[in-house]
Each structure stands twice: as structure tokens, then as C-alpha cells.
Write a structure and sequence with these properties.
9% of the residues lie in helices and 35% in strands. With 182 residues, the protein is mainly beta. The protein folds into two domains: 89 residues, Immunoglobulins (Immunoglobulin-like), CATH 2.60.40.10; 45 residues, no CATH class.
Amino acid sequence: MPAGSEGIRITFRDLNRYGQKKTCFWLDDVFLMRLPDLELGGVVFEDTNRNGLRDAGERGVSNVAVSNDRKIVFTNKDGEYSLQSAWIGKYVFITVPRTHESTTNFYKLLPIDATKALTADFGLAPYSNAAKDDVAFVLITDAHIGRPTVPQDGVLEDMKELNALGMDFIVASSAITPSFIS
């Protein structure tokens, strides 16, 4: 951008190993506008017949955390929630209470080009082990799953053995490559 022109100069202050600024550039013809607030709402309900749909007589579940990864709200006494934001996000999700399990996905993908109110409902059913006080889980870290040096068949066999132990859940904290997911 020529000297004296209007614009916005952006400088990244990260330094390279020589102590020099890495990047500096100008933005020209910047247009800023406030996006209208969009509303995202729905209900978390007790799905007694486990069909994933809210049927007549299925009550809402109160005090369930719902988030779009920017805001967290809790469902009211009727299981309803509402999020208002200029940035709704890519998805909305619930934190499933330990007394319940999901009968629908615990998250919903949202259209990124939404211009009107969105609805996302979540079904829950009572969890059969809800009275259990102890939780058993396995934490697997840095397993390098999906790398050529780690045989996938062995990893899958290990996971089956862990699952047979009756774990409540397994957490794998690692870099999982796309070849393992497919």
C-alpha cells in the first residue's frame, strides 16, 4: 500500500529465530458490518421410546448444558434453551448428564449460511447404570494411532479387550490420522 493511503496495517509480532518480525501486510478497502443476531433454540427431551423424536407426553429435561462453543446456556424447567449471537457457530452440542444417555447425536451441525432462526433438539433416555457411583475409564495417550509403525489390527484388538473389561468410556488423546478413521 503506498505511503499516505488509507488502510489497515497488520503486523504479526511473532519473532523468528533471528529476532525479526515474520509478516507485515496491509488491508485495503476493508468493509466492516455488524451481523444481525441469529437465534438458535430447541429442546432437550426425555426420549422414553428411544426413537430420536419428541413424541406427545415426552417431557423436557432441565438443567442440561447446551453450547455453540462460544456460549453455554442451561435448559429451563421445560428442557428449552436459546442462544442468540451474531456468530452461531458450526455446531451446537449438549453435555449429556450422567443420569442419561443420548438417543440422538449429542451434537448437531449447523448451516454456515443461516439467515434465520435455527432449531436443534436433543433426545435423552435414562441411563441404566445411572445409580453407579464409580466410573471406570481408560486414558490412552500419544499412541501414534494410524502411523505405519503401529499396526492397526493390534490397536483394534487392544480396544476390543479394553471394551470387554466393562469400561464406562475410553479416552484416546493422540494424533489420529485419517487412514485410521476410514
